[in-house]
Amino acid sequence: MFSPRRTFPGCRSIGSYYGLPDEVQMLREMTRTFAEQELVPIAGKTDKEHLFPAEQIRKMSEMGLMGINVSEDFGGAGMSTLAYAVSSEEISRGCASAGTIMSAQNSLYLAPIYNWGNDDQKEKWVRDWASGGPSGGKIGCFGLSEPGNGSDAGAASTTATKVDGGYLLNGTKMWITNSYESQAGVVFATSDKSQKHKGISCFVFPLDAEGFSLGKKEDKLGIRGTSTANLIFDNVFVPDENLIGEPGFGFKIAMHTLDGGRIGIAAQGVGIAQAAMDCAVQYATERKSFDEPIANQQMIQQKIADMEVKIESSRLLTYKAACLKDNGKV
Questions:
Q1: Residue 170: what are its φ and ψ, rounded to 5°?
Q2: Furthest-apart CA atoms within the chain: distance in Å
Q3: Residue 219: phi, psi to the nearest 5?
Q4: What is the helix, strand, coil percentage profile of the chain, to 5?
Q5: What residues contact 16, with CB distance under 8 A and at least 6 apart?
Q6: % the chain with pLDDT above 70
Q7: How far apart are CA 175 and CA 218, in angstroms?
């Protein structure tokens, strides 16, 4: 089987699926096959019964998808942003929950530590999350949003009070993806209120830390294979070594992380839209109206054509954004 654990070059131009670099096209075919065989059969039950697809996520980790942009030096697959977008699209097409788990892991948990952390932090908080090896397969979450503040990184009411050897975290983060499945998380807290957004710092912490707890699981309208809950900090101590970057760098780290994460979110949306399109085409070609397939009716044909144009446009814009990021243009 094709192994994705190598560096993929970003593409220089985007035309269609067939303009992808050979390695990325191979990855697309591999993830599509995986999604059709492993995700499509369980997607409905996963969502209806709020089931975390643990076995499928384990296999995705072994395939290198759960640490796709992390270098091989720290257990990742060392792939491009384009490869991430393509694989995220195909995984999301098979199961929106699996795509969300993958996106939150790569874009939100791993990215800020990998991009802003030191080598010791990467070794401790990245390797076992990016790797599919015996000690790998761990899940991470990202704590930014708060009750009343939403995702406004400059208005964090969660506080980080400096004490001997570290910080005490107090506050609540809201709507956190992968909360109950995670072993560690990245959190943003105000360490110097007088500096406003320049007084926000970023930390990594274990979810078994003393004083930390999770709120109830939210009953969502979809993507219910991954839990969404509050992160509650009650005098949670994190040592100085868990500070990502410098004190006051939190706002910059959050903005940089969210900018990159939007490519993954866009790829998820394209995959989910494509799955809906597939269902619509199947329905239109199988159901009959006035003794002929619905798809033979001109109005339905036009509707399907319009849907296809919108999906393909979204796909190419997502791939373009990924290529621009790979080439250092954004």
A1: -140, 135
A2: 79
A3: -90, 95
A4: 50, 20, 30
A5: 316
A6: 89
A7: 8
The one-letter amino acid at 239:
P
Does the structure show a pLDDT above 70 at 287? Answer: yes
Query: Residue 286: pLDDT above 90?
Result: no
The distance in angstroms from the start CA to the end CA of the chain is: 34
Return mean pLDDT, the chain: 90
What's the whole-number mean pLDDT along residues 244-262?
95
Scanning 104-146, the segments in alpha helix (DSSP H) are: 111-116, 119-125, 127-130
The letter for the amino acid at 144 is L
For residues 163-190, give the mean pLDDT. 97
Say how many C-beta atoms besides its own lie within 10 A of residue 66's C-beta: 29
Contact 96/272 with Cβ under 8 angstroms? yes
Rounded to whole angstroms, how far apart are CA atoms 253 and 188?
A: 9
Running DSSP on this structure, what letter comes out for residue 111?
A: H
43: which 2 tokens?
Answer: 């997607």
Dihedral sign for Cα atoms in the order 99, 150, 49, 270? negative
Ordered structural domains, the chain, with CATH: 142-252 (2.40.110.10)
Q: Mind listing the pLDDT tens digit for each residue in 59-76? A: 999 999 999 999 999 999
Give the pLDDT score at 5.
37
